[in-house]
């Protein structure tokens, strides 16, 4: 049936698979993603910038509220900038871990991960990527454009980004030092952007270890 539109539309005909292939493809993707782990022990081996760019391209395909795409991925390879980010992050983390800023409940929740204020991996990795959420848009004349569903949109984009890195055999960690305002200054970002997640990106170290975690079963994840 022909439809009338006030804005440009194009045909969309996604690939359809036989049911057996649908299940196979879905299971293979699940098993691939189930092998993904957050890593805190990295190699300093170089990683092609193109891999990071491909991950950002993938993130950029994510759905967003009103298709406003309220994200900016800042890619950092410069060693001096990575050092500055590590030093600033550790100042905040020492306040969290040694300065008593973490509540007892929060400490208890983190205990099995054995995390601490040392963030040496921020200098070890060849790349840092900081995702900034655009709180609002800015027109060429300086006026603001309201953005809708910013947290939801940026969160989905970051999920795509992580999946793309894993698909290329790279590791990362969703690092969210609190507060994160220092990233705005170091990265030279405008006032309409706020730091959302800091991603260290590289190969897992040859002797990397991760906590022995068990993901909750389908019966708990789905109602």
From TrEMBL:
The keyword Oxidoreductase applies. Pfam families: Nitroreductase. One of its GO terms (molecular function) is oxidoreductase activity. It comes from the Bacteria. SUPFAM superfamilies: FMN-dependent nitroreductase-like (SSF55469). InterPro entries: Nitroreductase (IPR029479), Nitroreductase-like (IPR000415), Nitroreductase/BluB (IPR050627). Residues 35-203 form the Nitroreductase domain. Keywords: Flavoprotein, FMN, Oxidoreductase. CDD domains: iodotyrosine_dehalogenase. PANTHER family: IODOTYROSINE DEIODINASE 1, NADPH NITROREDUCTASE. This is Nitroreductase. It comes from Streptosporangium roseum (strain ATCC 12428 / DSM 43021 / JCM 3005 / KCTC 9067 / NCIMB 10171 / NRRL 2505 / NI 9100).
